[in-house]
Design brief:
This protein has 179 residues and is an alpha+beta fold. It is built from four helices and seven strands. Strands 1-2-3-4-5-7-6 form a seven-stranded mixed sheet. β3 and β4 form a beta hairpin. The longest helix is centred in the N-terminal third of the chain and has 17 residues. Bound molecules: coenzyme A. One of its GO terms (molecular function) is acyltransferase activity, transferring groups other than amino-acyl groups.
């Protein structure tokens, strides 16, 4: 198994991986939606606001993760949002998702990124360090349909600071249908 940064020529394969994985777990419409999101994130986001990594087995992409910038007051916090992540159905439940997320966190920490957030199931994300956060502590960029899914962690010391300013996600995620 190899973990590495994505390459531009892999974008179609990454989109297909998200379509397949989310169609399998949540239905065709969700698969299409998340595939389009992954493609938009990878093609429309400035390179300084994007980190994406793949897991490969025998040269094939079997899992993929995308982090994009979450901006607060200019220059105040170095924060990224994990969304989406997927492991191909036949490879799920073997620890690959957790390893890929941890690989991503380590790479982001090396780049000086302090805070990471995501929006999902705490039962899974708590395995890789995320905790539930109230919007009184950190504002989500859009209105949340499932506020319990707003999660975060500090990659340096575990403490999430209180951030009073609004937060802003990248353009591809700036749509209520994802929140
Ligand atoms: C979620 C996902 C990325 C996890 O990757 P994975 O390689 O299957 O997970 P791991 O093997 O590293 O970890 C498995 C653990 O996470 C839990 N888990 C896996 N998927 C979960 C999910 N969707 N919700 C809650 N818990 C989940 C398992 O119960 C297991 O816990 P256990 O070891 O205590 O039994 C992967 O299953 C996937 O792509 N699922 C479909 C798409 C998706 O739901 N993406 C994330 C949206 S929040």
């Amino acid at each position: 198994m190899e973990f590495r940064k994505y390459k531009n020529e892999e974008i179609d394969k990454i989109e297909a991986l998200f379509v397949k994985t989310f169609s399998d777990s949540e239905g065709e419409a969700e698969g299409k939606l998340i595939g389009e999101l992954a493609s938009a994130l990878l093609t429309k986001t400035n390179s300084e606001d994007l980190y994406a990594y793949n897991a490969l087995a025998n040269g094939q992409i079997i899992a993929s993760i995308i982090f994009t910038r979450l901006e607060f007051e200019k220059g105040k916090f170095n924060a990224f949002l994990l969304s989406p992540v997927a492991v191909l159905p036949e490879y799920q439940g073997r620890g690959i998702g957790q390893k890929l997320i941890n690989f991503g966190h380590k790479a982001l920490k090396k780049k000086g990124i302090e805070l990471v957030f995501t929006y999902g199931d705490i039962n899974f994300y708590s395995k890789v360090g995320y905790k539930k956060i109230s919007e009184e502590i950190v504002n989500a960029p859009l209105k949340l349909s499932y506020p319990e899914g707003w999660l975060g962690q500090n990659l340096n010391n575990g403490e999430i600071p209180v951030i009073t300013s609004a937060s802003y996600c990248v353009e591809a995620l700036n749509d209520p249908k994802y929140w």
